[in-house]
Design goal:
The complex is a heterodimer of chains A (417) and B (222).
Chain A (H helix, E strand, L loop, with lengths): L18 H47 L1 H5 L2 E7 L4 H10 L5 E7 L1 H9 L5 E5 L5 H5 L7 E4 L4 H34 L4 H20 L2 H4 L4 H33 L3 H10 L2 H28 L7 H22 L5 H18 L11 H7 L5 H12 L6 H7 L3 H13 L6
Helix pairs in contact in A: 1-11, 3-7, 6-7, 9-11, 9-12, 9-13, 9-15, 11-12, 12-13, 12-15, 12-16, 12-17, 15-16
Chain B lengths: L4 E10 L2 E11 L4 E5 L6 H8 L7 E6 L2 E2 L3 H7 E4 L11 H10 L5 H12 L17 H13 L5 E5 L7 H16 L3 E5 L3 H7 L2 E4 L16
Parallel strand pairs in B: 3-8, 3-9, 6-7, 7-8
Antiparallel strand pairs in B: 1-2, 1-4, 4-5
Helix pairs in contact in B: 3-4, 3-5, 5-6
The chains are: A mainly alpha (417), B alpha/beta (222).
C-alpha cells in the first residue's frame, strides 16, 4: 500500500500534508492557544485601564511640576561694561538652551528696570577686565550678579549655576590660554587670537549647557534611580511572557496531549504558537508603558526601544523552550526556569545598576544577555532620546544562540522526528 | 508479508531497563489484536513506538509494506488514542471535535461536514455540548476514540481505551471497533483488562518480560 491515499473516505486526512494544510493547522493551534490566554489578557488590559485612570491625574500634576524645564525657563540681562566680543559669543552659544527664554544685552539701568518689572530673573555685569585672573594671575571676581528680589529662591539657584559656569569657563579659558599665544606667534592678530581662544572656551563649555544632568546637578542621582527603575520594569515585563512559554512547554512536555498534537501537527507549530502567544502577552504588557512614556515625552521614539525589548522576549522565549523540555518533573523545571530568570535579571543589572557591582563582577555582567538591552533602554530614557541602531543590534546578540538551543531541544525530543 | 502489521526484533530500553526484548509479531489487516500484561510490562511503550512517539533502539516495523521509519507515510496511516485522555478539558465535546478536525488542516467547508457527521456519531451525539471536564470517564473515552478515528486510519492503536468507561460506553466502543474491523481496519489494543480483550479481539498477545512468549513468528499466520 505504498503511496497510501491520505485522503480518506470522510475527506479528512490523518495529518496535514500540503503547505496550506500545515498553515491552517498552525492557525488552529494558535487560535486555540489564544483563546486560552484571552481571559488573562483581558484582565491585564483591565488592570492597565484602571492604573492609567488612577495615574493620569498624577501624571498631569507631574507635568505641571516638571519643573525643571519650566522652573528654569527664565530670561536674563547682561550688562557688558567692556562692550566685548565675549557677550556676543556667549549669546550665540546659549541661544538654543531650552531653559533660557531671552537674553537681553542691556545697559545697567535698563537691566535694573527689567529686573524691577520681573521680566528677568537676574542680570549680570561683565567688567572690562573679565578673565583678569587668567591673563594676569590676580585674583578677583569679575562677574557681578543682581538677583530678582521677587524670586529670591529661583534667582539664587540660577546665580549659583551661573557662577559654576563662570568658574568652569575660567578654568577652560586658562587651559587654552597657551594656545592664544601660539596663535599669535603663528602670525595671528592679538585681538583675533583672544577672540578665537574665548570662543573655544565657550564652545567647550556650551556642550554641557543642554545636558540636564549638569543643570540638575543636585537631582541627578534621583533621576537616574527613576529611569533605572523604569528601565528595569520594562525589561522585566518584556521577559515575563517568556515564563509563560516555559509554563506551557513544561506543562505539556512528554504528555499524551502533546504526543497527540505533535503526531498530527508536527513539533514546530505548537512551539511557534506558544512563542507568538508570548509575543501577544509582550505587546499587552510592554507597549502601553512605551506609549505612556512616549506621551510623557520621556521617550523620543517607540520603535527602537520596542525592538530592544523584543530581543529580551525572544531570547527569554527561546531559552525557556529549551528549559521547558528538560527531562525533569514539571515543578523542578519551573523552579529552574525562575532561577535562570532571576540570575539573568540580577546579573544584567536590572535590579541594581552594574556600576554598583565589584569590578570583577561588572566585567562579567557586561556579557550577560540582559545587560545590553538594559543599558540601551536606560540610555534612551535617561537622555530622553532614542536607541542607536548599533545598540539595538547589540541587544539581539543572545537571540540566535537561544534560538539554536530551543531548536536543538525540540529536535532531541523522544519523538521519531 | 506486505499486508498487515509486521514487528520484528523490536527492542527498547528506558532509563537503563530493557522494556522490550526482541519483540516480534504479525497482525493481518482487518483484525483486532489485544496486548495484555501487567502494569509496567511495556504495553504502552510498544504502542508509543508503533505510533511513532518513541524511537525504538532496534528492530523493524512495517504496515502494509510501509516502514515505521517513513514517518510522513506512517503517520498518515495511523490513528492513535493514548492512555491519558489527551483532550483539553476546558473545551466542550463539540469544540474538541472541531479542534482536532481543524488541526488536520482541512478547508473549512470539508471540516464542517466532518464535524457535523461526527456530532451525529452515536458515541458522542448525546453529550456534544458538555465540557470535557464534566464528562464521565466513559463519555470522555468515547470522545477520545472519536478523535482518534478522524481520517479513518488504516491502523488504529488504542492504549487502555476502556479505562474508566462504564459498561454502556464499553459496549458502544467495542461495537464500533468490530464495525471498523469489518471494514478492513487493523486495530491493536493495549489493556490490562483481559476479559474485555478476550471478548473483542481476534487474538490476545500476553506481554511478559519484554516479549510475547506465546508468539512463534515462524508458525503459520492465524
Amino acid at each position: 500500500m505504498k503511496g497510501h491515499d491520505r485522503k480518506r473516505r470522510d475527506g479528512l486526512t490523518t495529518v496535514p500534508a500540503s503547505f496550506c494544510e500545515r498553515i491552517r493547522s498552525f492557525l488552529v493551534i494558535f487560535l486555540n492557544d489564544l483563546r486560552k490566554a484571552r481571559m488573562g489578557l483581558l484582565i491585564v488590559l483591565l488592570i492597565y485601564a484602571v492604573l492609567i485612570a488612577l495615574i493620569s491625574p498624577i501624571l498631569k500634576s507631574d507635568e505641571k511640576a516638571d519643573s525643571l524645564g519650566q522652573h528654569l525657563q527664565f530670561s536674563v540681562s547682561i550688562v557688558d561694561e567692556a562692550d566685548s566680543y565675549f557677550i556676543e559669543l556667549i549669546a550665540e552659544a546659549v541661544k538654543n538652551v531650552k531653559y533660557l527664554d531671552q537674553i537681553y544685552l542691556d545697559t545697567f539701568e535698563k537691566a535694573k528696570e527689567r529686573l524691577d518689572r520681573n521680566e528677568t530673573i537676574l542680570f549680570l555685569t561683565i567688567p572690562p577686565d573679565l578673565f583678569e585672573q587668567t591673563r594676569t594671575g590676580s585674583v578677583r571676581e569679575s562677574v557681578h550678579i543682581y538677583l530678582n528680589p521677587q524670586k529670591p529662591m529661583e534667582a539664587s539657584a540660577i546665580a549659583t549655576l551661573i557662577r559654576q559656569y563662570y568658574f568652569a569657563i575660567d578654568r577652560v579659558y586658562s587651559a587654552v590660554f597657551g594656545y592664544q599665544k601660539e596663535y599669535e606667534k603663528l602670525g595671528g592678530d592679538e585681538d583675533e587670537s583672544w577672540r578665537q581662544t574665548t570662543k573655544h572656551a565657550i564652545n567647550s563649555l556650551s556642550a554641557y549647557f543642554t545636558k540636564d544632568r549638569f543643570i540638575e546637578k543636585g537631582r541627578t542621582p534621583d533621576q537616574s534611580a527613576i529611569y533605572h527603575a523604569l528601565s528595569g520594569i520594562l525589561v522585566l515585563f518584556a521577559f515575563l511572557p517568556a515564563m509563560g512559554v516555559l509554563y506551557q512547554t513544561s506543562r505539556l512536555h512528554e504528555t499524551d496531549l502533546e504526543d497527540r498534537t505533535i503526531l498530527i501537527a508536527g513539533r514546530i507549530s505548537p512551539a511557534i504558537s506558544r512563542v507568538l502567544i508570548g509575543l501577544i502577552w509582550w505587546i499587552a504588557l510592554v507597549i502601553p508603558w512605551l506609549i505612556a512614556l512616549r506621551i510623557a515625552g520621556v521617550l523620543e521614539t517607540l520603535l527602537p526601544t520596542a525592538l530592544v525589548l523584543t530581543s529580551v522576549y525572544l531570547f527569554g522565549a527561546c531559552l525557556m523552550l529549551f528549559v521547558g523540555r528538560a527531562h525533569a518533573p514539571t515543578v523542578g523545571v519551573f523552579q529552574v526556569g525562575w532561577l535562570i530568570f532571576f540570575a539573568l535579571i540580577l546579573f544584567g543589572g536590572v535590579f541594581y545598576p552594574t556600576s554598583l557591582f565589584p569590578a570583577w563582577l561588572r566585567a562579567g555582567a557586561r556579557f550577560t544577555p540582559m545587560h545590553a538591552p538594559m543599558e540601551a533602554v536606560f540610555t534612551a530614557l535617561s537622555e530622553k532620546g532614542s536607541v542607536a541602531t548599533n545598540n539595538v543590534l547589540l541587544s539581539f546578540w543572545a537571540v540566535p544562540p537561544a534560538m539554536a538551543l530551543g531548536f536543538i531541544r525540540i529536535r532531541r525530543r523522544r519523538l521519531c522526528d | 508479508m506486505n499486508e498487515g502489521l509486521t514487528v520484528r526484533n523490536l527492542t527498547k530500553s528506558m532509563r537503563g531497563t530493557e522494556v522490550l526484548k526482541n519483540l516480534s509479531f504479525d497482525q493481518p489487516t482487518g483484525s483486532i489484536y489485544g496486548i495484555s500484561g501487567d502494569n509496567g510490562a511495556g504495553k504502552s511503550t510498544l504502542l508509543k513506538i508503533l505510533a511513532s512517539v518513541l524511537i525504538p533502539d532496534g528492530g523493524h516495523v512495517s504496515f502494509s509494506g510501509i516502514p515505521l521509519s517513513d514517518k510522513a507515510e506512517w503517520r498518515s496511516l495511523i490513528g492513535y488514542v493514548p492512555q491519558e485522555l489527551a483532550l483539553d478539558d476546558r473545551l466542550r465535546v463539540r469544540e474538541t471535535i472541531e479542534f482536532w478536525a481543524a488541526v488536520r488542516g482541512m478547508p473549512v467547508s470539508i471540516r464542517k461536514a466532518i464535524v457535523k457527521s461526527a456530532m451525529a456519531d452515536p458515541l458522542i451525539s448525546d453529550f456534544v455540548n458538555k465540557p470535557i471536564r464534566e464528562c464521565s470517564g466513559g463519555m470522555a473515552r468515547r470522545a477520545s476514540l472519536v478523535v482518534g478515528l478522524f481520517g479513518d486510519p488504516a491502523l488504529l492503536l488504542l492504549d487502555e481505551p476502556f479505562s474508566g468507561a462504564d459498561a454502556r460506553s464499553r459496549a458502544m466502543m467495542t461495537e464500533r471497533l468490530r464495525h471498523l474491523r469489518d471494514r478492513g481496519r487493523t486495530i491493536l489494543i493495549a489493556s490490562h483488562v483481559e476479559n474485555t480483550l478476550t471478548s473483542l479481539c481476534d487474538r490476545v498477545l500476553h506481554l511478559e518480560g519484554g516479549h510475547f512468549p506465546d508468539v512463534d513468528i515462524n508458525a503459520p499466520t492465524q
